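Lay summary. Proteins are chains of building blocks that fold into shapes, and those shapes determine what they do. In this project we predict the shape from the chain. Here is one chain we studied, written as its sequence of building blocks.
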Amino acid sequence: MEKQIKEQLSGKKILFASAAADGHFNPLTGLAKYLQEAGCDVRWFTSNIFAEKLKKLNIPLYPYNKTADILGQNSDLDNYEGRGLITDPIEKLNFDFIHIFIERSPEYYADILDIYEDFSFDLMIAESVFTVIPFVRAKMNIPVLSIGIVPLAEKSVDLAPYGMALPPAANDEAHAEYAKLSDQALNVLFKKAVDIHDGILNEYGIEHERSLFPDLLIKQSSLYLQIGTPGFEYQRSDMGSNVRFIGALLPYQADTQKQAPWFDERVNQYKKIVLVTQGTVEKDTRKLTEPTLEAFKDTDVLVIATTAGSNTTELQEKYGKSQNIIIEDYIPFNEVMPYANVYVTNGGYGGALLSVSNKLPMVAAGLHEGKNEVCARIGHFNYGINLNTESPTPEAIRNAVEEVMTNELYKNNIITLYNEMDSYNSKELCTRYVIELLANSTVSESARTGLAVKQ
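And here is the predicted shape, written in a compact code that computers can read:
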């Protein structure tokens, strides 16, 4: 790290902030440690479920106090307020917008005002759907650097509304159709969510343009740093001036040289290896993990399944007798992906980026939590095959995996994307943007004395 960078950052106070989910917290950990090592006083506002992780990172935690910890307190989110009964992806996304994100924003703000009395931070770095962003920037006059942890959700005349997972408009007719869909999304499909968010921001006197909340948060950020590169994102003619690409910003990895990396001798016995996971949010292994195991059990394809603790014992009892199946709670992706030929995923963005980092093409099957947007990009750019479903059949998975393994198009495209992402020094880029914001910021006196109040 350059001496000049350390001199510019020494003693600067930075508050990281994230929702209570691995996919929202983990991507920011590498940057947090990098800034801490540069001399910043780094602390984190999030759920207590990350207390142990932050302790290992040696980063102080400010836990939710006035904030309802819906994600952290519900290990199976489908049990919350009947969410599991919602089958339509737009309806489920609408539910999540309101109850998990939008309604939490005043609570986040109340907690952050308390935090500021103890820790007068110079800058907040938040994951991109952390709904307190407008409050900190507008009410406290503190710059906010937002990290895009999902594909770019900014509204564009060239795209359908985020969440519909449609490709870019190819002609005037598609542009016109997408304009209608955007109006429908704002005023029909997500009207309730938009109205609630609009009302909250109006109540606090925060100037804003009425829009879907992910787009609104991008526009409200001082700078928006999109994880990924242009090669994994749709081209737009109207991209916001505050948007920057930063490459594959990956979670912090501790020095594991003292520990032997994961290994199973079977990885040397099979020429075809498939890695499958559903991530940490989706608990129903019948959707993707089990169909993948069914597709290849007792074949010449080795299947490695990581469950994140969901039904591991049951799956081992059901499939463990097959020599070509490995089932474990957790395996570090960077230790297992180098052995694999195909990654079967439900569309977690972090996992997809790790797959790219390991030059590993994908088969994608996911609809909810915005994962359909990740899957759509995988299919659109031919980085793999998008099955366009939440619950693919074993036959569909088997056919897609075989196609990805035998068609060099997918592997070649992934290598091209890998080379593009590898050209970005993510943490250094982020650090330079941090320095830029700090140099240009003037924090209000009311914020410095902890007197920012609801207006």
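What the prediction tells us: The longest helix spans residues 172-189.
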